Amino acid sequence: MKLYNSLTRKIEEFTPLEPGKAGIYSCGPTVYNNLHIGNLSAFIYADVLRRSLTVNGFTATHVMNITDVDDKTIRDSKAAYPDEDPLAALQKLTKKYTDVFKSDLAATGCDLDSIQFISAVDTIDDMITLIQRIIDAGFAYAAEDGIYFSIAHYASAGHEYGLLQKVDTASSKARVANDEYDKDAASDFALWKRAEEGEPSWKASFTIDEESVAMPGRPGWHIECSAMSEKLLGVPFDIHTGGVDLKFPHHENEIAQTCAAGAEHLANYFVHNNHILVDGKKMSKSLGNFYTLRDIEEKGYNPQDFRMLVLESHYRSESNFSCEILEAARNRMKSWRSSADLLWQLPEQRHNVDNIQSIISNALMKDLDTPKALSDLSLYFAIFEKELTSSPARADIAYIESALGLQILGEDISPAQKKLLEERSKARNERNWEESDRIRDELDHQGIGINDGPRGQIWYRL
């Protein structure tokens, strides 16, 4: 498999640390609100990466973190539950939006059973241990409000800061307590934040200059991912995924922390997906173009339609979202499902159009070329729209679903619906058009359409 590696800025052959296996870490959501569809697309691409490796013979271990303590979760939990204990308020808010997130993942075809989720609040002790290792190595220092990572000391020790994105290190003496900051200039960042009044906190003690310093507080955002990925995958691991907006400072700081603590690398491959634009503009609340999965569903679309829209663009390209594009994706899904439903009505047939499974595999092996895979599949399904005697092979449909996470084949219609079709066929043979139309309308209300043609009655889902 070939993947574009953000570390080297080129497409490379994927060579795992252990033959036949692949360890993947995906930066998961910060669970303080509903995810917008741009965030959701990152997890769809990560799911396709894992699926592509799996169908091509790799055993993939996919880890995803849940950021359930940071600036945003604390801020919003205070606002949502001002009268509750800070930690209880935090847990109530993050539990709510973790459940929503997992529901969104499942609805869009991501395989939750294949993901090992790990929570920040369940890994606090690991973070404290990792921070102490960074202190012991001489790359962190104490300030009044917490423990900070020193970029100057890191660079002076021969480490390169700015592996993923070139940044201005001239102002690296600046210090920031916020988790998110200037996207162009390096700054010393918080590894641990001393507790402030009204915030959830955890007991912590750090040894600094041979003195034990008690510092109840909470972790900074960046240290969380370094600790969680190491806990489940070790260091280095194979592939780190996330959106391009996380390259700096988040992923760059993950690399620095892990290497400062003694590792040679964090991950051998960084795979970043690009943004989804809305009518050509970056999605944001301030522009009023912020969409969630619920917004899409309220417009009458299925989450699988959105997955199709996402996969129609290459993960490294900016893509565009509009209702017109989503409508086209829905029509493509309906067309494919109608062809797949022929399997319940006509004999299976493998056609000499090369091997569709190999075609899809080859596209995915070339840097996850999902647009090419979908284009080839449209040609494949078009065969059965014209073919009068056969349906796609069940094994091919199963492979497509496994590789892309698109739910193509539905359940067979019910015995009662089959009986209605028989009655309609009899009515047509008797030229009883009124009864034929009545049955058509009845099936229509049940979500079943009918095409009359050379093959006879062919039903499809509306």
Report how far the terminal alpha carbons are from each other.
Answer: 38 Å
At the first level of CATH, the class of the largest domain is: Alpha Beta
Spans of at least 5 consecutive residues with low confidence: none
Strand order of the largest sheet: 5-4-3-13-14
Q: In this structure, how is the largest beta sheet organized?
A: 5 strands, parallel
Write down the overall mean pLDDT: 94
Strand portion, in percent? 15-25%
- Which structural class do the helices and strands define? alpha/beta
Number of helices: 15
Report the CATH superfamily of the largest domain: HUPs
Annotation, overall tally of beta strands: 19
Helix content: 40-55%
Descriptive keywords:
alpha/beta; 19% strand; elongated; 5-stranded parallel β-sheet; Rossmann fold; 3 domains; 5-stranded mixed β-sheet; 462 residues; 42% helix
